[in-house]
Amino acid sequence: MNVMRDLVGVDFPLFAFSHCRDVVAAVSRAGGFGVLGGASFTPESLETELTWIDEHVDGKPYGVDILVPEHQFATGGATIAQLAEHLPDEHRQFVRNLLASYDVQLDSTRGGDGDLPPATSPEMGQELMDVAFRHPIRLIANALGIAPPWMIERGKAEGVAVAALVGAKEHAIRQVNAGVDLLVAQGTEAGGHCGEVSTLVVVPEVIRAIRDVREVPVLAAGGIMTGEQMAGCMAMGAAGAWTGSVWLATTESEVSESFRQKMVAAGSRDTIRSKARTGKPSRQLRSAWHDAWEGPESPGSLPLPLMSILSTPAFASIDKAADAGNAKARELVSYWVGQGVGLVEKVKSSEVVVQEFMRDYAEAVDRLTSALD
User: Fold this and answer.
1) For labelling alongside 329, which of 118, 127, 232, 359 has CA 20 to 30 A away?
2) What is the model's pLDDT at position 222?
3) What is the mean pLDDT of residues 1-7?
4) Helix, strand or coil for residue 272?
5) pLDDT at position 238 over 70
6) Does pLDDT of 253 surpass 80?
7) C-alpha torsion sign, points 280, 143, 84, 73
8) Side by side, which strands form the sheet with 282-285?
9) Helix, strand, coil in percent for the chain, rounding step 5
10) pLDDT at 325 over 90
11) Average per-residue pLDDT in the chain?
12) Given a cut of 70, is residue 119 above it in pLDDT?
């Protein structure tokens, strides 16, 4: 485990990706490594969140993850509000009709974020990165493609490790050649944007592929919900585990109460890899929303970031209605979650989850050692 201590200052290499500052701080305090998903914030709100984490993390290490897609959607510097004006009427009407059929009133009012570029634009990515580097982060990560040169250069200058998520060995080789310090090999079981290869295959495949290029530690990701799974991935050569879905079922997480209840009740086959939320394939809890977008009346998903601009106010309206007691709206409730959702039995605190990971990891290692004896 020393490689992670030297790189980012953590002894137990359990990385917890979350959009919730409370989860990030709680995990780091408990001995793991919290990573804040920064793409859901504006530069101003990210500054607020990171300042709060600095004050509540007790000096323990943490990181930030932002989204800078390698293949950019040509926005021409347009803001979210300006891009929204170009959403096809057919898609707007489809969403209105869908929500109305479940007695959900679409609230399309926007806050100040409408005046900003999309979170997936390089302009916003660089602004968010500038905010992150004003804080004592130990890691900055990028998803959706090769980490841009300006992120890698800034990381080296600031002494901050740069990580990148990959879903195939060829992507890993390109990232290592680009200069990243840490790889996250993410299997298709993962929640959010993911590839098509399973964690059990992609982790050793990536480790073997980069062996002759440059020595870079690899974290395993995708469906990891327990310490036993973490130990299994490290037995394959991973330097630790990158987790996300397990933190959604914690008392601190950002999800709606309706989703939290659906998550506990869900099985591993209740997720779907769909374009119907962001325009790129991402794994989510399947709901009536996805059934409608796959149906014969669907106009088809829009590309990134237009699909996100269309779906974001819709899901905010759905969650609001469901939490207010609209049982029909609950059928539409969804969020990004991996196939490991089937291992979630109840809601716990983030600290308890870290403690259980540590205990179960240690027991798994003891079993492996005993088997060798």
Assistant:
1) 118
2) 97
3) 86
4) strand
5) yes
6) yes
7) negative
8) 192-193, 282-285, 271-274
9) 45, 15, 40
10) yes
11) 92
12) no
What distances in angstroms separate CA 96 from CA 80, 288, 292, 311, one per listed residue?
19, 14, 12, 11
What DSSP string runs through 22-65? Answer: HHHHHHHHHTSEEEEEGGGS-HHHHHHHHHHHHHHSTT--EEEE
Runs of H (alpha helix) within 133-273:
149-158, 169-178, 199-210, 227-235, 257-265
Instruction: Give the torsion sign (CA, 19, 242, 28, 150).
Output: negative
Beta-carbon contacts of residue 51 (< 8 Å; ≥ 6 apart):
135
Task: Over range 264-292, report the average pLDDT.
Answer: 97
Model pTM score: 0.93
Q: Is the pLDDT of residue 178 over 60?
A: yes
Please provide the DSSP assignment of 284-349 as one string.
EE--HHHHHHHSTT---PPPTTHHHHHHHHHHHHHHHHHHTT-TTGGGT---B--GGGGG--S-B-
Tell me which residue has tokens 């004006």: 85
Q: Answer yes or no: are the C-beta atoms of 240 and 207 closer than 8 Å.
A: no
First to last CA, the chain: 22
Answer yes or no: is pLDDT of 354 > 70.
yes
Retrieve residue 163's tokens: 């990580």
Q: Which domains does the chain have, with CATH numbers?
A: 2-77+117-286+334-372 (3.20.20.70)
Say what the pLDDT of residue 95 is: 97
Tell whether the torsion through CA atoms of 239, 244, 248 and 251 is positive or negative: positive
pLDDT surpasses 60 at 78: yes
Q: What is the DSSP letter of 18?
A: E
Residue pair 341/263 in contact by the 8 Å Cβ criterion: yes
